[in-house]
Amino acid sequence: MSAIAANPSLCPTVAFPKDPAIVVVRPTNSIEQQMEENMAKLGVSAVMINADSVVSARLCGEDLWIMARAGISMIILGPEQLISKGFQDWLKHEPFFNRVCALGVDEIHLLLLWGLAFCKAFTQIGFMRARFRSGITMIGLTATLLWDSKVADAIFGMLGVNHGEFYLIRRSNSRHDIQILFRTLHSGIDGLYFPEFAWVLKNLDKTIIFAGTITLVFRLKVYLDSLLPPGVDRTLRVRTHHSLNWADENLETITLFKSDLHCQIIVATNGLAQGNDISVIKTVIQVGEPESAEMFVQKPGRAHPNVDDPRAIFYISATRQAKALTVLAQSDAENTADAKKEGTVAMDRPVAQIIAARCKPFIQDELYDNPEADSPCICQSCLAHPPATRPAVCRCSGCLPEISAELYVPPPKQKKVLSDIPRSQRLTKPMKAAGTTRLEAFRALYRASAKLVIPLHQSVVHPLAASGKKQTIPTELKDGLLDFLAQFGQTHSDYLLCKLIVGGNGLSYAMLLQLQAYLQFHDDAFKSFEILEPQLQVWHTKLLLGTDDIFGHFAGLAEAKKLPEIDSLIEIAKKLHHTYSTAQAKDHAIFDIGTTSEWAKTVPTGTTWEEEDKPVPPPCTGDFVLGQAIDFFRDGLNSRKASFAVAEGDVGRLYEAIKHMLFTFAGSTHTNYMGYLLEMIINLELKSSPGLKEALLLCLLVNLTGLLGHFEEGDYVVEFFNRLLEDVVQHKNAQFDDNFIRNVVSRNLRHIAELKLAWRTGSGMKQKSKKHTDPHSDPEMQILLKTYRMEELHSRRLGRQIDDRDTDCFAKGIKKLRSGGLDKWIKKSLQTRQIRRPAEPTTPEPATPVAVEDDSEEVDEEEEEEEGRA
C-alpha cells in the first residue's frame, strides 16, 4: 500500500491515500511484540498499543494514540484497546480515520474460544469494521478453522461478515515435519513430583512445556529446579511465562530463550500457544489433553520448521484417555450432564476423537478437511524454506509405537499397612454484684498475667478505595494489590523498601503466599512482592448438678430463698471443669473402669449399657461416648479463651490459643488451616525478629470504640465494612469499580457507620434490649438438655459406644505431626519457596545434560490420591 501510494503507476486501478495505514488486532502481548519486531526488519513502521505499552509510554511522557495518527503504516492493537477511550478518540480524528485502508484480525478462531469464555474484549472485533469507512478491506487469519460449518459460521458472524461477501482461502495446517507423540501421565497434577519430565533436563533441546494453569506452571518449575545440581543458575535454565509475571519479565524470557544457550526450557500457559514464532524451539510438551482441537494444532506449531526433527509430546492421564472413549460413546447432552455432576468442564468431542484415534495426523486432516497436498507457494519464504511433504510412513506414536529411554514407568504401588495400634492409644442482684466483683478481680489478674496486651486506644481506620478484582484468581489478586499499594504511593518505579502487612482469612492468606511464591523469580522487591508481609487473620480461625431441670432447680431455690453462695458455685464449677473438660477427664472416661478415683467419685453413674453390637475397641473399656463429649467441652473452652483474649486485646494469650488450635486442626479433616497456622507460627517464631513478631501480633486486633473489652479481630472489622459497602452497591445497582463507590463511599465507610449511629441516637432510637432477643433460644435449650438427660450423655456408662470415631483431634494432631506430618509439610514448603538463589560462579558454557535420580517414591498420600487426574 505504501509503495502504490508513493507511486500510483505501479497499480493504476487501485488508489490509496497518501499515508495509508492498516490496523491489526492480535490476541496476546507476545504476538504483538513479535509482529512489531518483524515489521521493523522489513522496514515497515509499526507501533504496538496494548495495556502495558500505553502505561510505559505514559511514564516516558508519550501518547501512543497521538503518535500513531500519522507516519505509522501498521498499528498493532491488543483487543482490550477496542473499548478504550484512546481508541474512541482516535476514530474521531478525521485525518487518521481517512488514511486507514485495511483491518487485520489474527487468530480469528480465538473469537469463539476466548471471546465467549473470559476475554470479552474479543467480542468487540466484530464491531470494529463498522466503525471505519465503508468498503474497507478486512483480513482474517487462522491456522485452525475447523471444517464444522457451525463453528465457521459462528466465527464469521462475530466478524460481521456473511457468506458470499468474502473469499475463503483454505490450505492444509498439517506440519509433516513434526512427530506427534502421546504418552501416559502418571503423576497427579496437584502434586509436586513429575518424574515423567525429568528427561527434559538430560538433553539440550530448546523445549517449551505448556501447562493449563499458573499453579501447574509453578509446580513444574519447582520440580525441574529441584533436579538441577549446585552451580546451575535456576533463574536461567528453566524460565516461566504467564500473565502473572510482569511484562518485562516475560519479554526477557523470550529474549534469553532465543539468544542464550543456557536458557533451555520455558514452562508457559497458553499465552505462548498462539502465533509466536520462536525459531529455536525443537520440542513442545503439553501436560494434559489439549483444551480444544485448535490447541492440538497450535501448540505443536510452536516447534520451528527450521530445526532438525521437531516433535510435540502430549502427556495425558489414563483416566482422561478412558474419559475420551466415554465421551465418544455418549451423546453431547449426556456428556454435559456428567461434567456437571463431576463439577468439571465437558471434554470436546473433537478432542476425544484426537485422543482415541490411532493415527493423530489422520484425524487432524479429517477435522480440518486438509487436502492431500497444497498447491506450491511461490513466496520468497516458502521458496527459501519449502514446507515438509507428507511422509510415506506416519511417525506418530499411534502408528509407530515408541521405544525410548524417555518413557517413564512408575514403580509398583506399595500397599498401605494398617496400624495394629488401637485408635484410643493415639442471676440474682446479689449474685450479679458478687460476680461482677470477682470478674473485675479476675480481669485485673488476667491482664496482669497477660503476655502481650494492646494498650487501650481507639484504632484509626483508613479504608482504601474498593476494587472489583477477585481475590481467588492470582492475576486479579495481583492487580488488586497493585491498586491498593498505589493508593498510598507505592508503585514499581517508586516505593519505600519496608514491610507492608497484608492480612486475610485462610484462603486469602494462602493466595498471598502463593502469589509471593509465583513471583519470587523477579529480582525487584516490589515486583516479587517481598515488601508484603502476609498475615493470617484470626476471626475466621476461631470457632451436672444431679437434677432433671437445671432452670427449675434454681427457680425453686430462689423462691425458697436458698440460693447457694457464689463461693460454693465456684467450687462446683471447678469440679465440673476437672470432670468434663480436661485431657485427664477424657482418659478417665475411656480407660477408668474403677470406682475409687477422684474422677469416678465425681461423675454420676448411669444405667447399664446393653448394646453389644458395637463393642468398645480395646483397650478402651470405659465410656467412649462420654469421652467424645469431653473432647467437645475442651475444644469449646479453648475457643472461649481465644474469644475472651480478643475482647481484652490480649494478643499474647490469643497467640497461645492459636498454637493449641494448630494441633486440633492437624488432627481434624480441615488440614488446610493446619498449614495456615504452621505458616503463621513459623513466620513469627523463626523468620521474624522480636520487634517484627510483636508488631505482627499487635496488628491482629483493632478497637473502633476505644473502650475496654471492645477489641475485635481485623478481618471481622473488614467484614463489617464490606457489609456496609455491599448494601450501598446493591442499593445503587452499582459496581465496586465505579468511581463513586471507589472514591466516595469506600473511603468513608467509617464515617458512614458513625453517621448511622449518630442519626439513630439523635432521633431518640436506641438498640433493642437484649432481654427480648432470640426468643426461641430457651425452649431449644430445654429440649437439648432434656435429650442429654434422657440419653444420660454426661453420666458414666461402661462399654458405651455409638460409633468408633476418635474425636480427640488435639491428640491425633500431635501424633500426626510427630509421625511425619510436620516433616512432610516442611519439605513441601521448602520446595516451593526461596528457589531463586544466587548461582555459584561457573565458567560460561552451554547447558549440559543433567543426571537425574528417580525420586518417584517420594510421593505423599495426597499426591497418590490425585494420581490419574488431568
UniProtKB/TrEMBL annotation:
- Pinpoint the Helicase C-terminal domain residues: 196-344
Sample GO molecular function, one term? 3'-5' DNA helicase activity
Acidic residues composition-biased segments: 852-870
Example of a GO cellular component annotation carried by this entry: cytoplasm
**InterPro entries from the UniProt entry:** DUF6589, Helicase_ATP-bd, Helicase_C-like, P-loop_NTPase
Q: Per the UniProt entry, what is one GO biological process?
A: double-strand break repair via homologous recombination
Domain named Helicase ATP-binding is located at: 1-163
Q: Which key words are in the record?
A: DNA-binding, Hydrolase, Isomerase
Q: Name one Pfam family in it.
A: DUF6589
Q: Which SUPFAM superfamilies match?
A: P-loop containing nucleoside triphosphate hydrolases
- The segments labelled Disordered in the record are 829-870
Q: Which EC numbers characterise this protein's activity in its record?
A: 5.6.2.4
Reactions this protein catalyses: Couples ATP hydrolysis with the unwinding of duplex DNA by translocating in the 3'-5' direction
Q: Which family does it belong to?
A: Belongs to the helicase family. RecQ subfamily.
Q: Which PANTHER family match?
A: ATP-DEPENDENT DNA HELICASE Q1 (PTHR13710:SF105), DNA HELICASE RECQ FAMILY MEMBER (PTHR13710)
Q: What's this protein's name?
A: DNA 3'-5' helicase
Protein source organism: Mycena rosella (Pink bonnet)
